[in-house]
């Protein structure tokens, strides 16, 4: 049915091999369908009308071979194919540890097909049929949304990994607080500075109860402002108020930078210059 609609579409863009082969695109997808007219038309519409480059596979086995050497932003697959169904292709891809976004594009609208697709790791489902341009517009929108979401998640994961490495290895003491000022964690440099073994030694400390922070600075921090100030950290005062207990009261800070956000965590970093007198630590040039 879809082949007939495609052939009769008088508005269909002319097939242009140069466009499909050399087209520069933000997204690169793999189209898998054992019906040649459908896969060619899918690639054509996506490329010409939606700026999405497509490679083509006429079977699940061919798709698996292409996936060995090429990383795609998304895979668009028919459900019912002779050699391997779209669900079986999906299972094989996921068994390889490949999390490329996978979209089922089929004329089969049975509920069990949809359920099987999502249970096996599909990211989307688009029905064939109906007005041809609207159908491919829906497919293109689904591909773009899912692929961009995956790219964003990957970028965020990389940023989190980079932060974790910096956080652990930084020579600057760093504290992490929640939006209510409760201490969540401190890095190894902060443990060394405060003379504690781990964040468990200072668990429960509240930034907003810290007597060493000027009140006006705390109010600014609660509003989500970034604050910078210089002060001598009085551990005795903190201990007397039972804010938290440390194994050492020998080390102090004289400057820290805090950034507060109304909906996110707060952070504080304490530059430590160990050759300074222990009562007051003054950092080098402030960044």
TrEMBL record:
This is Response regulator receiver domain protein (CheY-like). Gene3D superfamilies: 3.40.50.2300, PAS domain. One of its GO terms (molecular function) is transcription cis-regulatory region binding. Keywords: DNA-binding, Phosphoprotein, Transcription, Transcription regulation, Two-component regulatory system. Signal peptide: none annotated. The modification 4-aspartylphosphate is found at residue 78. Pfam families: PAS_8 (PF13188), Response_reg (PF00072). GO terms for biological process: regulation of DNA-templated transcription. The lineage of its organism: Archaea, Methanobacteriati, Methanobacteriota, Stenosarchaea group, Methanomicrobia. InterPro entries: CheY-like_superfamily, PAS, PAS-like_dom_sf, Sig_transdc_resp-reg_receiver, WalR-like. The keyword Hydrolase does not apply. Residues 28-143 form the Response regulatory domain. GO terms for cellular component: cytosol; protein-DNA complex.
């Amino acid at each position: 049915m879809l082949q007939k609609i495609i052939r009769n579409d008088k508005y269909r863009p002319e097939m242009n091999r140069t466009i499909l082969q050399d087209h520069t695109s933000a997204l690169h997808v793999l189209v898998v369908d054992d019906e040649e007219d459908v896969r060619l038309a899918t690639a054509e519409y996506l490329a010409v009308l939606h700026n999405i480059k497509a490679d083509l596979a006429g079977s699940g086995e061919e798709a698996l071979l292409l996936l060995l050497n090429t990383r795609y932003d998304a895979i668009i697959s028919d459900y019912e194919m002779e050699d391997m169904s779209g669900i079986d292709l999906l299972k094989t891809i996921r068994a390889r540890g490949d999390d490329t976004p996978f979209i089922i594009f089929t004329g089969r609208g049975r509920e069990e097909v949809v359920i099987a697709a999502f249970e096996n790791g599909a990211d989307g489902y688009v029905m064939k049929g109906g007005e041809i341009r609207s159908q491919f517009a829906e497919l293109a929108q689904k591909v773009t949304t899912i692929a961009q979401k995956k790219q964003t998640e990957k970028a965020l994961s990389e940023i989190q990994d980079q932060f974790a490495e910096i956080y652990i290895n930084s020579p600057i003491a760093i504290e992490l607080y929640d939006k209510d000022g409760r201490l969540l964690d401190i890095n190894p440099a902060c443990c060394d500075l405060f003379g504690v073994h781990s964040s468990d030694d200072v668990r429960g400390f509240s930034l907003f109860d810290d007597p060493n922070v000027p009140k006006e600075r705390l109010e600014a921090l609660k509003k989500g402002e970034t604050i910078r100030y210089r002060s001598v950290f009085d551990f005795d005062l903190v201990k007397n108020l039972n804010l938290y207990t440390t194994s050492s009261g020998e080390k102090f800070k004289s400057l820290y930078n805090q950034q507060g956000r109304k909906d996110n965590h707060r952070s504080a970093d304490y530059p430590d210059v160990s050759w300074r007198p222990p009562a007051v630590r003054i950092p080098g040039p402030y960044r």
